[in-house]
Amino acid sequence: MCGAPEQGGGLAGVDLTTQTVIQGQVWHDGSPVAGAYVRLLDATDEFTAEVVTSPEGHFRFFAAPGDWTLRSLSPVGRAERSIAADVGLNETTLAIA
Fold first, then answer.
1. Which of 44, 58, 64, 74 has the fewest CB atoms below 10 angstroms from its CB?
2. What pLDDT score was predicted for residue 53?
């Protein structure tokens, strides 16, 4: 069983002055993709974490500040995006072509 928290929802109780949060949605053809796997890879492309998107396509990671790659995998396709995350909330979208 995965220990990842439920995706989506608010950030109540999270101190965004000390935490680095990377979150967003996975989309395909104008609709969110539920059940997609989103992987977090570090600056050397090493696997760090993975979560499954919520029914609304949301994902969230708590990470260290730095350069990260997000990679989504789903039956409808794949998407990838690099992000330079700072302390605070870092939002992005993964669009499957």
1. 44
2. 97
Name the residue with tokens 């029914």. 55
The pTM is what? Answer: 0.86
CA gap 87, 78 in Å, rounded = 27
Ordered by start, the domain boundaries in the chain are 20-96
Residue with tokens 């990679």: 71
Q: DSSP letter at 9?
A: S
| Residue 94 token pair | 């993964």
Nearest to 8 by CA among 29, 30, 28, 38: 38
**Residues 23-59: tens digit of each pLDDT:** 999 999 999 999 999 999 999 999 999 999 999 999 9
Question: Homologous superfamily of 20-96 in CATH?
Answer: Immunoglobulins (2.60.40.10)
Confirm if 27 and 92 have CB atoms less than 8 A apart.
no
- Burial (CB < 10 A; 0-12, 13-18, 19+), residue 76, is middle
